[in-house]
Amino acid sequence: MNLIALVGNLATNDTLQVVALGSVGLGLAGGVLGTFAVLRRQSLLGDAVSHAALPGIVLAFMLTGTKAPLVLVVGAAAAGWLATLAVLAITRHTRIKDDTALGVVLSVFFGFGLVLLTYLQRQPSAAKAGLDRFLFGQAAAMLRGDVVVIIAMGGAAIAVLVAFWKEFKLLAFDPDYAACLGYPVRILDVLLQSLIVAAIVIGLQAVGVVLMSALLVAPAAAARQWTDRLGVMAALAGLFGAGAGMLGAVISSTTEHLPAGPSIVLCASTIVVVSLLAAPNRGIIWQVLRHWRHQRRLGLEALLCDLLELATHHHDPEHGHSLSALAAMSGGRAGLKRRLRELHAKGLVRPVGAGRWTLTAAGRIEAARVAASHHPARHEDGCPT
Amino acid sequence: MNPGLEIQMVAVIVAAACALPGIFLVLRRMALLSDAISHSVLLGIVLGYMVTRDLASPWLVAAATAAGVATAALTELLRRTRLVHNDAAIGLVFPALFSVAVILISRSVGNVHLDTDAVLMGEMAFAPFNRLSIAGFDAGPVAVWVMGGILLINAAVMALLYKELKITSFDPALAAALGLSPTLVQGVLMTLVSVTAVGAFDAVGSILVVAFMIVPAATALLLAERLRAMIAWSLGIAVASAVAGYHVAVALDANIAGAIAMTLGAVFAVALVLSPRHGVVSVAVRRWRQRRLFMLQMLTIHLLHHETGDEAGRECAEQTLDQHLGWSPEQVRVAVRRALRDGLVRREGPLLVLTDAGRARAGEVLEGLTV
């Protein structure tokens, strides 16, 4: 499968355009709003809300008798919103912690929804088929109407987020300070949660419960690695989410038996793995490199100090010290000869006869500087052992 | 035995088996790991099936348990990089594993009984059809034996490691200092959770495993102050809800596990409102009492400060107290009425004056503050 064929497919295939556009919209909304969920350590709110939406969907169908996307989305949103309020209330008023509160609300709402769903299924008249589509998701079956709902609701949620950007920023990083400044913290809290709920419920039918909660977490967690600024993080998360949506939809459309939802999630997961490994400064590769560089520098400095210490205890400062003495002082650390070669290349040590080394004049100055910087109070009596 | 009784037996055993490890998940603030594990168990089952091509193979159980433990381990690994928080780590790991499982199902497993609906929902009503027969003798539903075994394992491991689980849950630093390995205990707990989730999966479905594990423990947390009491409450609530939920399901002709989860939720809601120590009602009453007591104390202290000197006429007049104390006139009226009734103050014209009892009360409070 090559890239040009993929892009060509995207340009000509009408169904794919719809699916791709919807997935991009979802990824964008999930990424931007997920930024706040991840920063406020509420990553699993998406998981809870998306499961808790089930009874709302079934009830909306039972009350209206239609399966129009908008009706079901409203039902899902109402149930999801109630669920977040329940979580907030439980954690605020009791000693139950947020993870347990989320677990309780998620599973009890889902159980209730399941009871409603099975009750409905066993009623003779009801044409209920397709309600469970909402749960497990069928991105490939997305219609134009669904995409319109996604773009309208996702766009509205992002617009509100931007309108209250300063307030939400304050809420995310220092809610106590926000309260001191007189902002209505509780109302802002509920508003932000509502926006997140909106982003989740529009995605349910496209990618399903589990996968929608991933779209909330993964792009934001990836974006967090690349920047320390909120605005940049939100933009990057939106970009990552949109990219994962596009890529996942296109790959799934060109491959047999590859459902779009999981394919989108795996694209997002790949972005996360790459970010965790390669992001500048925070990434794991950078951490390892930095650690390795520190170790190397410390090894050289310790060797300089050892030589200085030997020199101060010897009446002849030009005396060459044996490799075995240096090895004993460094506690048998490997790579002694390599480190001596490196210092020699820098002109800090020089060989005196066979296998004997001493500091050069520059080396003595450098060693004294290192010793002083490590033990400022003791620099006059040489290096610490 | 009739099918109804057999289903109730399965329900009770599943509920009790899930409730036990759930207690420690809740105490360790890892409740949602049960959600993650119960989803990624699917990956283990799919992989196991792809190797053995037999849905009844015991290797499936082993693979599923391994997948659950791997989820917990991956989450922990991700958390230790300190690049993401605990919640995000969970939210990153299990959707990815679940997605791999769904893709594998649709690509290679085909149309065997492995559809996601069955996995997520479970159907306890089918339990009596799958029977264990030993030498032609009917020994009852397989689920009773499997979950009964898991219940016994859970109970035995918890009895053996009770002290270790307790210390590592409440004070991991102390546990490490005493030479217990929190990582090892955590591993054992995660294995129990995974085994239980795998066993319960068929009967309950993956999401309601969360309800069976977390809700009894959360309810018990509202009712108990000690670990032993919490375990007893959890088990009692789990068993009672299992039986009651079964009857709800029969009455509505609905999914049994869902109805049990609903019942558990109802019990939780009742405890949330009515628990004698931690319920919303008793907390509200306690806060109201504290507020009233505090206002009474403030009133007596204010009067004590200003009872001598020139400003007494200004500071102690009943009409202007609201300005001096920063209260609303209504709050002043309530506090004054209360103080008069308790004999802490008396009226002298427009002024309020402390009685001896009131002076003593204010003195006590001030003494308590300065110590």
Task: Give the helices and strands, then pairings.
The complex is a heterodimer of chains A (385) and B (371).
Chain A: H1 3-12, H2 14-39, H3 45-64, H4 69-93, H5 98-121, H6 133-136, H7 144-163, H8 165-173, H9 175-180, H10 185-207, H11 209-226, H12 230-254, H13 260-278, H14 284-312, E1 321-322, H15 323-329, H16 336-345, E2 349-351, E3 356-359, H17 361-374
Chain B: H1 3-27, H2 31-52, H3 58-80, H4 86-109, H5 116-121, E1 131-134, E2 137-141, H6 142-160, H7 162-170, H8 172-177, H9 182-204, H10 206-223, H11 227-252, H12 256-274, H13 280-306, H14 312-315, H15 321-325, H16 329-341, E3 345-348, E4 351-354, H17 356-370
Antiparallel strand pairs in B: 1-2, 3-4
Helix pairs in contact in B: 1-2, 1-6, 1-9, 1-10, 1-11, 2-3, 2-4, 2-9, 2-10, 3-4, 3-9, 6-9, 9-10, 10-11, 10-12, 11-12, 13-16, 13-17
Mean pLDDT across all residues of chain B, rounded?
A: 87
Number of domains of chain B: 2
Q: What's the SSE pattern of chain B?
A: HHHHHEEHHHHHHHHHHHEEH
**CATH level-1 class of the largest domain in chain A:** Mainly Alpha
First-last Cα distance of chain A: 62 Å
CATH superfamily of the largest domain in chain B: ABC transporter involved in vitamin B12 uptake, BtuC
CATH class of the largest domain in chain B: Mainly Alpha
